[in-house]
Amino acid sequence: MKRAAFFMAVLILVLGFCGCSGDSSSESAPVSTGDEAPKAATKDEADNTETEVHTTEPETIPAEYYNRLDSILSSPLKRSSHQLEVEEWIQYPELPTGCESVALTAALDYLGFDIEKTEIAENYLYYEDYDLMYGYVGDPFSDFGAAIYPPGLTATANSYLSHMGSDYHAINTMGTELSDLYKLIDNGYPVVIWSTLYQNEPSMTDDEYYYDGETYYWYDNEHCEMLCGYDLDDNTVTISDPNEGVITCDADSFEEIYNEVGKLSMTIINLDGTAR
Questions:
Q1: 198 torsion bin: left (phi>0), alpha (psi -120 to 50), beta (else)
Q2: Interior CA angle at 97 toward 276 and 122, to 5°?
Q3: What is the pLDDT of residues 59-97, one digit of tens each?
Q4: Residue range 225-231: average pLDDT?
Q5: Mapping DSSP to helix (H, G, I), strand (E, B) and coil, where does residue 75 land?
Q6: What is the C-alpha separation between 199 and 105, in angstroms, rounded?
Q7: Residue 73, number of CB atoms within 10 A of its CB
Q8: pLDDT tens by residue, 16-26
C-alpha cells in the first residue's frame, strides 16, 4: 500500500538527513500555507541532492484563463452525457507508484501532445521531501513512492506546457463539485482527479497537509486518474485509470469517494472555446 511506501520514503529521507548532519536531532516537516512558491526539483536533482529542496517562483497564469474556467463552471451542461476519446495509459511496469504522472500524461495525450509515459516523471515532475501538496514524495519509479496533490501536479503540468510553448494552462480545481467538473468534460477539457485504488473506501490517516487555509489528509490507498466522461441517464462516470485502463463507475459511489478525500482535481484549458 502507498502508506507503507510513504513512510519508507520519509524514513529514507530522514536517515539521509541525519547521515549528512552528523547528529541524530530531528526536524519537523515543513508546513504549507497555500501562498508559498511551489517547492520543486527534477528527478535528477532530487536524486543528487538528498534532502535539499529546490524552489521556483510562483507560476503566473493569465487572468483570462481563470475567467474562462469560471465561465465554464457557471454555465449549465450542454448535454446529458459526453465521453472524451482517450487512449489507455497503464503505469506499470515503469511507474508502480506514479499514477499522478501517468494520469497527467493521459490528459496531455488527449490534448494532442506527443508524450512518452515516463517523460513527466523524468523531466517535469516536482519533487518534495515531505509535503505532497507541493511535490512528489518518494520515487514514482519504485515501490517507495507516495503521492503528489493538485498544487504540485498543476505546477508540473504548467512546466511542461510552458516548455512546449503551448497556449494551454493547467489550473488547480480543488474543491470543485463533481457535477461542475462534468462541465469541463462537456467542453472537451480533461480533468485529473484523485480517488482510490479500485474505488475502495478511502483509508484515511491523521497526516495533515495545508493549502489555501484548508486542511487535507493523506490516505494510504490514494490514486489518481483522468476523468474523461459522464452519463447522467446511466448515472455513470468514465475514467482512464493508470491501474485498470478505461473503466466505467457508478457516479454516486465515485462522487462519495471524491468528496471524502477532499475534492482533489485539476484541469487543462485554453481560450479557444473547446479543446477538441
A1: left
A2: 65
A3: 689 999 999 999 999 999 999 999 999 999 999 999 999
A4: 98
A5: coil
A6: 21
A7: 15
A8: 333 333 333 33
